[in-house]
ABC-2 type transport system ATP-binding protein
Amino acid sequence: MTDTTLHSEPVVTARGLKKRFGGKEILHGLDFDIPAGRIYGLVGHNGAGKTTTLNAMLGLTSYEGTIRVLGEDPFARRAKLMENVAFISDVASLPRFLRVRELFALLSNIHPNFSVDKARDFLSGTDIRPEMKIKTLSKGMMAQLHLAVVMAIDAKLLVLDEPTLGLDITYRKRFYRRLLEDYMTEERTLIITTHQVDEIEFMLSDIMFIRDGDLILHMQMETVNEKFAQLVSNEPETQEAARALGPVYEETRFGQTVFVFDGVARDRLEPLGKVSTPTLSDLFVALMQRPTANPETAR
Ligand SMILES: Nc1ncnc2c1ncn2[C@@H]1O[C@H](COP(=O)(O)OP(=O)(O)OP(=O)(O)O)[C@@H](O)[C@H]1O
């Protein structure tokens, strides 16, 4: 994080964000700030409310509470906001009847910050050619085209909702590498949801876990690494000692007992077995099963 990002206004601010569908409350009053220049992972089970949260930020759905994105109310000022926001969602589709070059021409007419040259540049190195009809592209090529389009937009905020759904591992890795190497700068902010959280963990600066419409963890990755520890312990005596330290999670896997601790110093754990930082997917499993992972924000 640079000084500028430390002192600048958050890119997204939400206060008491609630959403109801047909009388049923789906989001229960989320409060968060997303600063500039960060890469956020938004993680939660199916139906937890990730897409609804993103849709509220993008002005695609109405909500109760307050959201400001780049200082604007996204629902009231969607058109203005979209000059500086780009997004890919698992349901967004490109116009299939167009050729690739026609899509670029269309976008350069409707989007003030779209660069045809950049879009073409991003496609070099792929099998996609400007003359191709979009409907003939494979799923992987379609995702590459989508990424090229989004990366050709000079946006301050990029929102990716399951951007690599249905892609094979090679395409997924290439997708994230391209995004990091060719797009991310300190002025840009990226928010990603995915169920393959281990694949994006390396690039995240911050994480949000959402469970049943509540934000149960919102933390910088550095803090996650300091705060949480995983211990693998094989002997009954050391396991007993570990339990006495109040793990937030315990599981027996392949004959080994794995504990996750929140805020227990590593030098207290080290005599009891092998200590490491839990992966995000391990932490996710551990925290999702607790009654509350973060009592001040969870309900
Ligand atoms: N248009 C809608 N009408 C009614 N209910 C909806 C609508 N959209 C979403 N929901 C409900 O809101 C809840 C949250 O859905 P949402 O799509 O935000 O979850 P998600 O965390 O993105 O899930 P997934 O990982 O499966 O994409 C779910 O219970 C879903 O059924």
